Amino acid sequence: MAETGTSAARSDAWGVWGGNPPRNRGRQPGELETDQLTIAGEQLPSRLILGTGGATSHAALEAAIRASGTGLVTVALRRLDPGAPSLLDVVERCGVRVLPNTAGCYTATEAVRLAHLAREAFDTAWVKLEVIGDEETLLPDAVELVTAAERLVEDGFTVLPYTTDDPIIAQRLADAGCAAVMPLGAPIGSGLGIRNPHNIALIRQKVTVPVILDAGIGTASDAALAMELGCDGVLLASAVTRAEHPARMAEAMRLAVDAGRLAHAAGRIPRRLYATASSPTGGLPW
Amino acid sequence: MQLVVNAVTADVDDAATIADVVRDLAGIAEPRGVAVALNGAVVPKASWAETRPADGDTIDVLTAVQGG
Q1: Percent of chain A beyond pLDDT 90?
Q2: Local structure of residue B63 (DSSP, 8 states)
Q3: What is residue A55's predicted lDDT score, i.e. its pLDDT?
Q4: Which residues have CB under 8 Å from A136's CB, separation 6+?
Q5: What was the ipTM of the complex prediction?
Q6: Fewer CB near the terminus (10 Å): N or C of chain A?
Q7: Which chain A residues are Cβ-neighbours of B34 within 8 angstroms?
């Protein structure tokens, strides 16, 4: 693994970086393992989907994919550079599935065309549908997005649209037949976390398909919050690939997604204005 | 004939098929994870060997790169 600066104490505690930490301590064994994300009838081994964009090398990316525990990674489709090393070799070595995206498309027509090319290239009908409004914010163009989603669903695709945090648009996408909806927490690559947690919770309440928080994650607590809000999964790229130590952050994200999922299922205490003592109020010696 | 392959003008044999163009570009006959668009329209792999582009056509040969 390309990770550097790992302390001996850390290695002793958890074996080797990227190896599995003691997952079952303090809870019933198998709870997370049996609580799996299912999209379009297919079970995924992890609730974390890793974007591959931004990695400094294929070696760093491979280490991050392994440490993340993900079973699904996004890729983009671009003109072939015969001299470039194959990204699909990395994907194959890691034993993960490919989720092609339509990044770089600004209209429904472009996105539909790229999705069809991706289906031909990778032999998968799954697509992360992106239709971008402008290059400064990279925010989704909701109108073009819904149009593209409708067309691709009709063409037999399993559509996972990257969308705004607008519950109404999310509902429109679900109604169009999308297999999941993927609202943003904040603009792509911004690391700003979840700017409108209320809307994410509303989207989770509104649609019946899986909700994957996509874009804006900066660090592990953002991923945990997404899961605590009820999201079914998290898709992130830059937070891992552009971290100082990508594999270490990938492992942090894996743990955060698990922690957030458990916390959501555990039923948090209500927020109160005043303190509620947890120690007995009687029995003091005065 | 002249084709525009991945935005570069190329002189190719008049009898060349899409399969020939892909092989010349990629260096191998059937590269994995590759899709082809002829003048913007998808050409399925099964049709590469029979599809003959015309002079002036635009061909894009695409594959996976890192992307979120």
Answers
A1: 84
A2: E
A3: 93
A4: none
A5: 0.94
A6: C
A7: 80, 121
Contact in structure between A73 and A91 (CB atoms under 8 Å): yes
A-B Cβ pairs (cutoff 8 Å, strict)? 97
Q: Which one is catalytic: A47, A128, A204, A245?
A: A128
Cβ atoms of A102 and A118 closer than 8 Å: yes
Q: How far is CA A247 from the centre of its chain?
A: 16
Q: Over 60: is that where the pLDDT of A20 sits? A: no
Instruction: Grade residue A30 by pLDDT with cuts at 50, 70 and 90.
Output: low
Structure token digits, residue A94: 């890691």
Domains of chain B by residue range: 2-63
Q: A84 and B64 in contact by Cβ < 8 A?
A: no
Q: Does residue A55 contact residue B41 with C-beta atoms inside 8 Å?
A: no
The per-residue DSSP string of A114-156 comes to HHHHHHHHHS--EEEE--BS-TTT--B-HHHHHHHHHHHHHTT
User: What number is the average pLDDT over the span A99-123?
Assistant: 97
Q: CA–CA separation, A160 vs A126, rounded Å?
A: 7
User: B32 vs A11, which has greater pLDDT?
Assistant: B32
Domains contained in chain A, CATH given? 41-78+87-266 (3.20.20.70)
Contacting residues of B for A84, CB less than 8 Å apart: 65
Which residue type sits at A195? R
Fold of B2-63: Ubiquitin-like (UB roll) (3.10.20)
Q: Check if the beta carbon of residue A149 is closer than 8 Å to that of residue A159.
A: yes
Contact B67 A75 (CB under 8 A): yes
Q: Which residues does chain A have within 8 Å of residue B6's beta carbon, measured at their own beta carbons?
A: 79-80
- Whether A32 has a pLDDT exceeding 80, the answer reads no
Q: CA-CA distance, A67 to A276, in Å (whole number)?
A: 40
Is residue A161 packed enough to be buried (19+ CB in 10 Å), middle (13-18) or exposed (0-12)? buried
Tokens of B31: 């590269």
Is there a contact between A248 and A17 (Cβ–Cβ < 8 Å)?
yes
